[in-house]
Design goal:
alpha/beta; 7-stranded antiparallel β-sheet; globular
C-alpha cells in the first residue's frame, strides 16, 4: 500500500532523560523516525525533555517542544499544534505510557488525533500481564505461571499452587523495588511483606521461577499485509534471572538447534499476529529449558525496544526507520533497503559474523550497593563489538568497555585468591565481573562442568572462554613467534594483552607486527552476508586476507567517539561527535566515525560517510587511520576517551585538528595550570598536592578546613570528597591511594557557599566568543554534572559577567584554543576564582546550543577546518529572552542502600531542560521533566543541619504564605516556631512511631527539604531521603535547591504554564 495521504502532521513522543533501562537507544530510534517521516513529506512535531539528544535539535523536526513528557504537557502541545496522528512507539516505556494516558482520558478523541504504530488495544494486550497470558495460551504457547496477591494469605495460597522457587514482583514500583526470589516459605514471607509495603497499591505478583533457563530474544517486524521479517536473533550469555539489559548478549544466537530456532520463529510470528502488531517492530523474549528444550514466552514489547538499537547496529537493518514508514501505511516490500539498494525491507537480514554486547556498570560510584545483577537493571551503558568468531568479538568487546582491561585474565578481579571455594562463591551470584571470575576459575583448574553447574551458563560459551584462557596460557609459556602472533591476533588478542604475556611494550608488539605485515582487514556490515553489493560503508576489523575497505582520495577527517555511556561521560559527547559529522558534510569533507557504542546516533550507518564499529583504543584507532589516512582527526568531542589517546596518536604522526594535545595537558596538569593562573594573574582557591597521609594533613592544616580532595586524572569527580577534619582526611587518603596509586592527590580550599559558574566558549585562535554563562543553582562543592544550572545567570552583577568574559578570552588566548572550551568559575564575596579549564567539548554544549539557538559543536568543527567565527556569523554572546534550566536525573532508585545526598562525585545518568519566560516556571518544568509532580497545596517537611537553620527560615515562610502546612523534626521545628512560623513536630525514625517515613508512606507529605553537612549524614536523614525517593516525592538536599523549589511552586500556583517550541524561542531571540 502507498503511504497515507490523509495525515499531514505527526506528533512524536520522545523518551525523556537518559535513565537506567531507557538510555540513548531511544534518541537513536527517535532521530531515525523523524528523518524517515520528513523524507516522506510529513510535518513532524516532537516533544522530548532531554537537551543532550540529536532528536531535540531544532533541525531534526519541524517543531521541537523541549517540555516535560507528561499527559498534561503533551495535551497542551496537541491543543496548540493539532496533529493528525500520534506515533508513540519510539519513545520507550515513557512515550508509550503517556500515549495510553492521553487515549484513555479522551484527549486524542477530543482533538481528532489518531494513534499510529500501535493501537490502544494492541498496547493493552501486550502490556497487561493477564491479557497477554490469555493471548499466549490461546495460540497454544506457555508463559510462567503467576498470580496477584494483596495480602500474605493470598501469597501463600499462590505459592502452594505454583511451587518453589518463586519470583516476587511488587506492582507499580520503580527499579525492581520490593522484588526478589524466594526458595522457601520463610524467604517468601520476608520478601512478599517488603513487596506489599513498597507497592503503591499493596499488590505483589507471584510468578513461577524459570531461573537457569536459557534466554533469547527475536527482533521482529510485521506490516499490515502480514509480511513478517525476523531481523535478528539474540542470545543471552547469562541464564534467566539476570535482566536482558544486564546480560552479555550475542547475535546471532549460538546454541539453538535449527529446529528450536524455527519453533521460536514461528512462535514470534504467531504472537505478533495474535496481539495485532501490524505496523512496526516488536521484541519477543523466550526462555528454553536447557535439558528438556521446553520453550516458554517471557514477554514482548509492542514498540521499538532497547534491543532494537543493538539489532539495527548488528545487522545494518534500520528498524526504527522502517517502523516509522510502516506506521504511515507502507508495507515491507515497498521500502528499499538503504544498504544494498537492490533488495526490499521484506528481505530478511543474514549475517556472516558474530556480535557481542557487554553492559557497562558503574558500581564504584555507589559503594553502598552490593555488586549484584538481578531482574532489575543497573548498567548505565553498553559496548558492542563485531568479529568473525565469538572469541574475537568477545575479546574486542572486553577492550571496548574502557575499564582498563585488555584481556580476560589480566588484571584479575581485585579479590581473587588461590582459594577455589571463594572463587566459586563469586560464580554463583551474577555480578559485573563474573566473566572475569569465570576466566580466572578456568585458569585455576575449575572445570567447565563445575562452572556450568554454578552459573547455569551454556557449556558452549564456557568452552569458548576456556579456549581463550588456554591460548593465553600457551602464549605465556612459549617464546614469541610469528605463527603465535598471527594466531593470537586472529583470536582477538590486543597488543596490550600480548605485551603483558611476553613482557614487552605495546609499541614493541606493534612494530613487530608491522614489520611482519600482520595487519587487520576491514569487512562490511551489509545485511546480506555479501550476497549483494553494499553502498553504505559500515566496517568492522578482523585478521583475514580480503580487505573490503575503500579509502577515497577526497579530503577527509576522522572523528573519535566516546565509547560506552557511563556516569561522567554520556550522550552529550556523542551529540558533539554527530554535529562534527554534520559540519564536515556541509563543508564537503568526508567524515569517518570511529566508535563502539551501539545505542547512539553516531553509530547509525548513515550519520557519517564511513563508520568503523571498533574499540576506541590506540591500537584499533591507529589501524583505521593507517588504512584511511585522513587529513585530520578530531579528539576533543568524545569526552575523556579520545583525549586519553591524543598523545599516542600524536606520537604516531597523526594530524590532530583544533586545540593541541599539549594545550589540553597544560589545562589538566595541576602544576602546568598553576603557571598559567600565575602568569595571567587570576585567582584560584589555595591548593596543594600530596602523595602520603602526612603530606596531606600538613597541606590541609596550611590551607584550612574544609578542603576538597580528589585523585588526579579521573573523570566525573570519581572519589572526590569535601573533608571537614583530619580524621576524615586520613580515611579518605587510604581509599584514594588505591584508586589512583601512581598520581598525587589534589587538595583544594573548599569555597563554602560560593556560587559556581559554568562557561562554554568557542575560539578560532584569534576571536573568542563566550557562548553561554550558566549559574549553578546548588552551591559550589556539588559536581557540575549533578547541579541544576540556569542560563542566562540570574544573580550575577554585570561587572562580574564582564570579568568572566574577559578572563575566558585571556585563557583561550593563552591555551591557543581552536574549537570549544569550558571553564568552571566560583564567586565568593564578590571575588572570581578559576576552578578548572577544559579546552574541549563539555557536557553542557548541547544544553547551551539549544538555549541560545546556535549549534556550537558544528561551528567548532568548521573552526578546526580553518573557518573564522566572523565568517560563520557568530560574533557576540547571545542573551536569550527566555530562561533555560538544566536539571540532573539520578539513578538512586536502582541502587538499594544508596543515599541520595549530592556531593562532588558525579552520580547523575542524564538531564532534562525546562524552558519558560520566568525562572520559577522553567525550574518547575525541569522538576516535572525529571519525573516529579509539582505540588500546589499540602505539607512541606523540613529537616536541616544546624548550620542551615537561619537560612531555611525565609524559605519556610514563603511556603507558609503559599498556604502549605509545615512539618519538621524537633530541632528545626523549634527554630521555625521561634521565628514565628507554625511547624508541627514529627519523629525521626530513631525517635518512635508514627515517624516521618510513616507520614511519607501515607501520602501526607508533598515535598521534602533535608540537608546535611559533610559526608557524615545521620541514618535518620538517610531514611527520610530514601523514603522520599521510594515514593517519588519532590525532595532537595540543598538550601539553594529549596529556594528554587519555593520559587517554582509559587510560579505554578500563580499562573497556568504554557508550552512553546524551540524554533519560536530562537526566532524571538534572533529578532532582538
Amino acid at each position: 500500500m502507498p503511504k497515507r495521504s490523509d495525515i499531514k502532521k505527526i506528533l512524536l513522543i520522545g523518551s525523556g532523560p537518559i535513565i537506567i533501562s531507557q538510555a540513548c537507544e531511544f534518541d537513536y530510534s527517535g532521530t531515525q523516525a523523524c528523518k524517515a517521516l520528513r523524507e516522506e513529506g510529513y510535518e513532524v512535531v516532537l516533544i522530548n525533555s532531554n537537551p543532550a539528544t540529536i532528536m531535540t535539535d531544532p533541525e531534526t523536526a519541524d517543531r521541537t517542544y523541549v517540555e516535560p513528557i507528561t499527559p498534561e504537557s503533551v495535551a497542551k502541545v496537541i491543543a496548540l499544534e493539532r496533529p493528525d496522528a500520534l506515533l508513540p512507539t519510539l519513545g520507550g516505556q515513557t512515550g508509550l505510557n503517556v500515549a495510553v494516558a492521553l487515549a484513555e482520558s479522551g484527549v486524542l478523541a477530543e482533538y481528532g488525533v489518531e494513534m499510529i504504530g500501535a493501537s490502544l488495544s494492541v498496547i493493552h494486550k501486550a502490556e497487561d500481564r493477564e491479557k497477554f497470558r490469555y493471548a499466549i495460551e490461546k495460540i497454544g504457547l506457555r508463559m510462567p505461571k503467576s498470580g496477584f496477591a494483596r495480602n500474605m494469605t493470598e501469597v501463600m495460597k499462590l505459592a502452594d499452587e505454583i511451587g518453589f522457587p518463586i519470583i516476587v514482583r511488587a506492582s507499580f514500583t520503580l527499579g525492581g523495588t520490593g522484588s526478589g526470589v524466594a526458595y522457601n516459605r520463610e524467604e517468601l514471607a520476608e520478601i512478599a511483606k517488603k513487596g506489599l509495603d513498597a507497592s503503591m497499591i499493596q499488590e505483589v505478583m507471584i510468578e513461577e521461577s524459570v531461573l537457569g533457563w536459557k534466554e533469547y530474544e527475536l527482533e521482529v517486524m510485521r506490516d499490515r499485509a502480514d509480511n513478517v521479517v525476523i531481523i535478528c536473533s539474540i542470545e543471552n550469555f547469562d541464564a534467566m534471572g539476570v535482566h536482558t539489559g544486564e546480560s552479555i548478549t550475542v547475535a546471532p544466537a549460538q546454541t539453538l538447534t535449527d529446529r528450536e530456532y524455527q519453533h521460536m520463529r514461528d512462535a514470534a510470528i504467531a504472537i505478533l499476529r495474535e496481539i495485532g502488531v501490524e505496523t512496526g517492530g516488536s521484541n519477543v523474549q523466550f526462555a528454553i529449558h536447557p535439558a528438556s528444550g521446553e520453550m516458554i514466552v517471557v514477554e514482548m514489547n509492542p514498540r521499538v525496544s532497547r534491543s532494537s538499537a543493538l539489532a539495527s547496529k548488528a545487522t545494518g537493518f534500520p528498524i526504527a526507520k522502517i517502523a516509522a514508514k510502516l506506521a504511515v501505511g507502507f508495507t515491507l516490500d515497498e521500502i528499499p533497503n538503504d544498504i544494498t539498494r537492490e533488495t526490499m525491507a521484506s528481505f530478511e537480514p543474514t549475517i556472516d559474523y558474530c556480535v557481542v554486547k557487554i553492559p557497562r556498570w558503574t558500581f564504584e560510584k555507589f559503594p553502598e550497593t552490593e555488586d549484584l545483577l538481578t531482574t532489575s537493571m543497573k548498567s548505565v551503558g553498553e559496548t558492542m563489538s563485531i568479529g568473525r568468531t565469538f572469541k574475537e568479538a568477545l575479546q574486542k568487546a572486553i577492550r571496548s568497555l574502557e575499564t582498563g582491561r585488555f584481556s580476560l585474565l589480566y588484571p584479575p578481579p581485585a579479590d581473587v585468591t588461590d582459594d577455589k571455594e571463594l572463587l566459586k562463591s563469586k560464580l554463583i551470584v551474577p555480578n559485573s565481573l563474573r566473566l572475569f571470575y569465570i576466566a580466572t576459575a578456568l585458569q585455576k583448574g575449575v572445570t567447565v562442568a563445575e562452572i556450568q553447574q554454578l552459573t547455569k551458563i551454556d557449556p558452549w560459551f564456557l568452552h569458548q572462554i576456556q579456549e581463550i584462557v588456554e591460548a593465553e596460557e600457551e602464549l605465556k609459556n612459549s617464546a614469541p613467534t610469528v605463527e603465535l602472533l598471527k594466531a593470537a591476533k586472529k583470536m582477538g588478542f590486543a597488543d596490550r594483552a600480548l605485551a603483558n604475556v611476553w613482557n614487552k611494550t605495546e609499541l614493541e608488539i606493534r612494530n613487530w607486527r608491522e614489520a611482519e605485515k600482520i595487519k587487520p582487514v576491514y569487512k562490511l556490515v551489509d545485511t546480506c552476508a555479501a550476497e549483494f553489493e553494499a553502498y553504505t560503508p559500515y566496517y568492522y576489523s578482523t585478521y583475514e586476507t580480503e580487505n573490503e575497505a575503500r579509502p577515497s582520495d577526497k579530503k577527509k577527517v576522522a572523528i573519535i567517539g566516546g565509547g560506552p555511556n557511563r556516569i561522567g561521560q554520556g550522550i552529550e559527547f556523542d551529540y558533539c561527535c554527530v554535529h562534527a559529522s554534520f559540519a564536515l558534510r556541509e563543508e564537503g569533507v568526508e567524515s569517518i566515525m570511529i566508535n563502539s557504542n551501539p545505542e547512539t546516533v553516531s553509530t547509525d550507518y548513515d550519520t557519517s560517510d564511513k563508520l568503523f564499529f571498533e574499540p576506541v583504543t590506540l591500537e584499533d584507532v591507529l589501524h583505521i587511520l593507517q588504512t584511511e589516512k585522513p587529513d585530520g582527526v578530531i579528539v576533543q568531542f568524545g569526552g575523556q576517551t579520545p583525549l586519553n589517546l591524543a598523545r599516542g596518536l600524536e606520537a604516531a604522526g597523526v594530524p590532530i585538528l583544533g586545540t593541541s594535545p599539549d594545550a589540553i595537558d597544560r589545562a589538566e596538569n595541576r602544576d602546568r595550570f598553576q603557571e598559567i593562573v600565575t602568569k595571567l594573574n587570576l585567582n584560584q582557591p589555595d591548593n596543594d598536592t600530596a602523595r602520603t597521609v602526612e603530606e596531606a594533613l600538613q597541606a590541609a592544616s596550611r590551607i584550612g578546613y574544609p578542603v576538597l580532595v580528589r585523585p588526579s586524572y579521573v573523570l566525573g569527580g570519581r572519589s572526590m570528597e569535601i573533608v571537614y577534619d583530619p580524621d576524615a582526611l586520613t580515611s579518605f587518603m587510604g581509599k584514594a591511594m588505591l584508586v589512583s596509586p601512581d598520581h598525587p592527590i589534589l587538595i583544594d580550599k573548599y569555597l563554602e557557599d560560593a556560587i559556581e559558574i559554568d562557561v562554554d566558549a568557542i575560539s578560532d585562535g584569534k576571536n573568542t566568543i563566550v557562548a553561554g554563562i550558566m549559574e549553578h543553582i546548588e552551591e559550589a562543592g556539588i559536581h557540575s554534572g549533578d547541579s541544576a544550572c540556569i542560563l542566562p545567570p540570574m544573580t550575577i552583577p554585570p561587572e562580574l559577567l564582564k570579568l568572566i568574559e574577559k578572563q575566558t578570552i585571556m585563557l583561550a588566548a593563552e591555551l591557543k584554543v581552536v574549537g570549544l572550551m569550558n571553564i568552571q568559575y566560583a564567586i565568593k564575596d564578590d571575588t572570581l576564582y578559576v576552578l578548572e579549564v577544559n579546552p574541549r567539548a563539555s557536557r553542557t554544549v548541547p544544553f547551551v546550543s539549544k538555549a541560545i539557538g546556535v549549534p556550537l559543536a558544528k561551528l567548532a568543527t568548521k573552526v578546526m577546518l580553518g573557518k573564522t567565527l566572523p565568517q560563520l556569523g557568530f560574533t557576540e554572546r547571545i542573551a536569550p529572552r527566555h530562561i533555560s534550566v538544566k536539571e540532573a536525573v539520578f539513578p538512586f532508585n536502582r541502587f538499594p542502600n544508596v543515599d541520595s545526598l549530592l556531593g562532588p562525585e558525579m552520580k547523575s545518568t542524564g538531564e532534562v531542560m525546562g524552558v519558560d519566560h520566568s525562572f520559577g516556571l522553567a525550574f518547575a518544568k525541569s522538576q516535572m521533566a525529571a519525573g516529579f509532580k509539582m505540588p500546589v497545596a499540602g505539607t512541606v517537611f523540613i529537616s536541616v543541619h544546624d548550620y542551615h537553620k537561619n537560612r531555611i527560615v525565609p524559605i519556610a515562610r514563603a511556603f507558609q504564605e503559599m498556604g502549605f502546612k509545615i512539618t519538621a523534626t524537633r530541632g528545626t521545628a523549634k527554630h521555625l516556631e521561634d521565628k514565628g512560623i507554625a511547624a508541627r513536630m514529627v519523629f525521626k525514625v530513631s525517635e518512635g512511631r508514627p515517624n516521618i517515613v510513616d507520614h511519607i508512606k501515607n501520602g501526607e507529605i508533598q515535598m521534602v527539604i533535608n540537608t546535611s553537612v559533610g559526608r557524615k549524614s545521620s541514618r535518620d536523614a538517610y531514611h527520610i531521603r530514601r523514603g522520599a525517593l521510594t515514593y517519588n516525592i519532590l525532595y532537595t538536599t540543598t538550601i539553594a535547591g529549596a529556594r528554587a523549589l519555593s520559587e517554582a511552586t509559587k510560579a505554578v500556583i500563580k499562573e497556568d504554564w504554557q508550552v512553546c517550541s524551540l524554533q519560536e524561542y530562537h526566532q524571538q531571540d534572533h529578532k532582538n
